[in-house]
Write a structure and sequence with these properties.
This protein is of the alpha+beta class and about 270 residues long. The chain has nine helices and eleven strands.
Length: about 270
C-alpha cells in the first residue's frame, strides 16, 4: 500500500509517531522488495476426502450456492495450498479469525476445517434493531449484513396468539465461504480471509475451499475504488501480496470495531 495509507493505518492506535511510522513503512517496503518471489504461483488443488465430504453435508452447501451468479458452473470443492494463495485484501481481523477457529483442534482436524471454511452450518449472527423518527436502523458487527429479501408471511400476535398476515423485510448476514479463484496462472483468495488466517494459525498448510476456474476478471473481485483491496496491477504483478505475508511481514495494529449499518426509511404514499 502507499506510504500515506500505511502511515495512516499504523498511526491508528497512537503507538507510533509520524516519523517512526515512516521508518517502519520503509523497512516493510524493503522486506517485500528483497524477498524472493515464488517463481511458479500455480498450485495443484486436491479433492476433499470423500468420507469427510459426506459427513460434512457439502451437498447442502452446494444447494446454497447454486444461485450465486459469480460462480458460474465451473467450480468444485477442493483443498488448496495456502502458501501460494495471492491476497486481494490488505488486512485481516486477527481476533475474529481466532474466534472462528476456536473449536478446531489442530491441523489434523479436517472436519473442523471444512466446517469453518465452507460454513457447513450457518452460524448465529447478532443483529441490533433501533427506531428513529423516520424509520429503522439495522446493525451488526458482521460485515456480511444485508437485505436478504421481502415476502408476505404470518406473525403471531403476542397478546392473543392470533395469526396475522403481513409484509416482511428480511435482514441477515449472508453466508461466507473460503473462495479461491484460479485466474491467469495464479490462485487468488476472493473471500474467507479470517477463516484462512485462523486455520493457518492452527497449522494448516492446505485449506478446504470453493475453487473457481475463472473465465474472466469479473469472477476475481478486482475493484479499482475499494480502499481495503490491492489494485489489479499489484495482485497480478510478479511479486504479488500473498496470504502467508499476514503471518510473516504484516504489522499488528489496533483498529476500531467495525460493523455494518442499514437504514430503512418509511414513507407513506
Amino acid at each position: 500500500m502507499s506510504e500515506a495509507e500505511a502511515i495512516q493505518r499504523l498511526g491508528t492506535d497512537g503507538k507510533l509517531t509520524p516519523q517512526s511510522a515512516h521508518e517502519h513503512w520503509l523497512k516493510a517496503v524493503e522486506l517485500v522488495q528483497n524477498r524472493v518471489p515464488i517463481q511458479n504461483l500455480e498450485t495443484e488443488p486436491s479433492a476433499i476426502d470423500a468420507t469427510i465430504a459426506a459427513a460434512s453435508n457439502l451437498d447442502l452447501v452446494k444447494a446454497r450456492v447454486a444461485s450465486d451468479s459469480t460462480l458460474s458452473n465451473n467450480w468444485s470443492f477442493k483443498m488448496v495450498e495456502v502458501n501460494k494463495l495471492v491476497s486481494l485484501q490488505k488486512t485481516v481481523n486477527h481476533d475474529a479469525a481466532l474466534e472462528l477457529v476456536k473449536e478446531v483442534k489442530d491441523e489434523s482436524d479436517l472436519m473442523g476445517a471444512v466446517k469453518v471454511s465452507l460454513s457447513t452450518s450457518i452460524p448465529s449472527t447478532k443483529i441490533m434493531i433501533s427506531k428513529d423518527a423516520d424509520g429503522y436502523i439495522i446493525a451488526s458487527t458482521n460485515l456480511n449484513l444485508d437485505m436478504l429479501g421481502v415476502r408476505v408471511g404470518e406473525i403471531e400476535l403476542p397478546e392473543t396468539k392470533e395469526r396475522m398476515r403481513c409484509a416482511q423485510m428480511l435482514f441477515g448476514a449472508r453466508t461466507s465461504y473460503v473462495r479461491v479463484v484460479h485466474y491467469q496462472g495464479r490462485c487468488i483468495l476472493r473471500d474467507g480471509y479470517t477463516r484462512v488466517y485462523g486455520l493457518m494459525s492452527k497449522g494448516f498448510i492446505r485449506v478446504p475451499c470453493i475453487f473457481v476456474e475463472a473465465t474472466d476478471s469479473t469472477q476475481v473481485g478486482f475493484a479499482s475504488n475499494a480502499p481495503h483491496l490491492f489494485p489489479r496491477e499489484v495482485v497480478m504483478s510478479s511479486n504479488p501480496p500473498l496470504i502467508h505475508d499476514f503471518m510473516e511481514i504484516a504489522d499488528s495494529i489496533d483498529m476500531p470495531i467495525t460493523g455494518k449499518v442499514i437504514k430503512v426509511r418509511l414513507e407513506e404514499m
